[in-house]
Write a structure and sequence with these properties.
about 0% strand; MetI-like fold; 14 helices; about 75% helix
Length: about 300
């Protein structure tokens, strides 16, 4: 009986219909995800100028050249700084704003939800152009407001100290509303009885946030963190290209933008592929670390 059941299960497993249903999705993943990843890894081991039909195998020379370049070390630091700035604006700030508006009347909450979400519908290129106009040191609205109160408008995009935060602000402004709505929805989902019981026990302010709200919001916070990280990396290229092209003196360039520059401006496709490999590995480590944190530290249920 058991062998007959196994035989029937084996025959059912050979039916083509389930595999035909999966074929379009697998084909899409293979063509547009896995094949580009494999090809990029192969290309990182070669030297190629995007024009010549010959691709010279150089092994790990592209990676060695990157790590021996002091400019690449600065690029890594600027990438980390850009991601941290984006996480502040797309993770910490939305949570704080959601906590601040939770106690407001419903009509005020609706108003803030609308105002914060409006930038989300704008394209990243449009948002970059808007902020580029705001930052103009001579005719920009920010400069005019500062001059009206007797202050000099700083050249934010021309100053190496302020250029990168000014560019990172674009991604923060665009995606703040999306993450704010998610954080607010999570806070509203917490049962009122839990909050009242915590207050009866004397939990207010920071103790209430640390001991009650954050543990209950654990899975949501992890999603916010992953979403903020993804948006900061996915939309990092456009603001830099529109506003600064990596200047001044490379102070707004990061690894996402450097891949484009190496490939399509300097025609060093192998070096660009090596940078993309390092970026992918770094992102994978971050995601695995966050998933480990979810498994070990976040309460389930």
């Amino acid at each position: 009986m058991r062998s007959r059941a196994l035989g029937e299960a084996w025959r059912r497993g050979l039916e083509p219909a389930p595999y035909l249903y999966l074929a379009p999705a697998l084909l899409f993943l293979g063509l547009f995800v896995y094949w580009p990843l494999l090809y990029n890894g192969w290309l990182s081991l070669h030297e190629w100028n995007l024009v010549s039909p010959d691709r010279r195998f150089v092994g790990l020379a592209n990676f060695a050249a990157l790590f021996q370049d002091p400019g690449f070390h600065r690029l890594l630091w600027q990438t980390l700084l850009y991601v941290l700035l984006a996480l502040v604006g797309n993770f910490a700030l939305p949570l704080l704003l959601a906590l601040a508006t939770l106690a407001l009347p419903p009509r005020w909450q609706d108003l803030f939800q609308t105002l914060f979400f409006l930038p989300t519908v704008a394209a990243v290129s449009v948002a970059s152009l808007v902020w580029l106009y705001l930052y103009l040191p001579a005719a920009g609205p920010l400069a005019q407001v500062l001059r009206a109160v007797g202050l000099e408008a700083p050249p934010l995009l021309a100053d190496p100290q302020t250029a990168l935060p000014a560019v990172a602000l674009v991604a923060n402004w665009k995606f703040l509303g999306f993450h704010y709505l998610i954080a607010l929805a999570g806070l509203k989902a917490i049962p009122r009885e839990v909050m009242e019981a915590a207050r009866v026990d004397g939990a207010e302010g920071l103790p209430l946030l640390r001991r009650v709200l954050l543990p209950l919001l654990g899975p949501l916070l992890l999603f916010l963190l992953l979403s903020a990280l993804a948006s900061s990396l996915e939309y990092a290229f456009v603001p830099v290209e529109v506003m600064t092209q990596g200047g001044p003196f490379g102070h707004t360039s990061h690894l996402m933008y450097a891949v484009y520059q190496e490939a399509f401006r300097f025609f060093r496709a192998g070096v660009a592929a090596a940078e993309a490999v390092l970026l992918t590995l770094g992102l994978g480590v971050l995601i695995l670390g966050q998933l480990w944190l979810l498994e070990k530290r976040v309460p389930h249920g």
